Amino acid sequence: MVPIPLQKQEKWTPPESNIIKLNFDASFSSSSHTSVSGVIARNSRGEIMAACTYPHMRVADAFMAEAMACEQAVTFAIELGFRSVQVEGDSLSVIKKLVSAAPDKSILSPIIRDISSKKGFFESLTFSFVGRCGNGAAHALCREGLHHNNPRYWMEEAPKVVVQAAAKDLGS
User: Which stretches make up the RNase H type-1 domain (predicted)?
Assistant: First the structure.
């Protein structure tokens, strides 16, 4: 993976053809030290290919929650058999750590190493940053995941509120 300059996108943009874009986000509760990861996979036409929510326990802080959500996005892509993937999220610190050539020495380093160790599963794996406005569908998934104690998965669909957020991401 060649690091690319991080440019803030203000809206969601479809990936190139033959690439699946997975957007991730996390919600974090400091009182219970839990988080929920939300991941949505879309193709070059903006169609929802899959979505998931995943609860996590014993989460130290919001930065860790975001890193865990990114890790979940990469794992989800592997499980679905996607080979050319762009992972996008609104956590600039996590994205910077993933595109940096320097080894990470933060509390996130085990998660960053795990994500990096999975690059061999892909023909192409890139990471990019998008502003909060361009990550609405993943954010809506996190909110949906707060209502469930177990992981939830959708294939070629998503909860209605997420479908609406995805359309809004596209500007529809």
Answer: 23-144
Nearby residues of 110 by Cβ (< 8 Å), 6 or more positions away: none
**DSSP calls for the chain:** --------BSS--PPPTT-EEEEEEEEEETTTTEEEEEEEEE-TT--EEEEEEEEESS---HHHHHHHHHHHHHHHHHHHT--EEEEEES-HHHHHHHH-SSPP-STTHHHHHHHHHTGGG-SEEEEEEB-GGG-HHHHHHHHHHTT-SS-EEEES---HHHHHHHHHHHT-
**What average pLDDT values come out for the chain (172 residues) when binned by 10 residues?**
51 94 96 96 96 96 96 98 97 94 90 95 96 93 92 96 91 66
In a domain, 107, yes or no: yes
CATH number at residue 70: 3.30.420.10
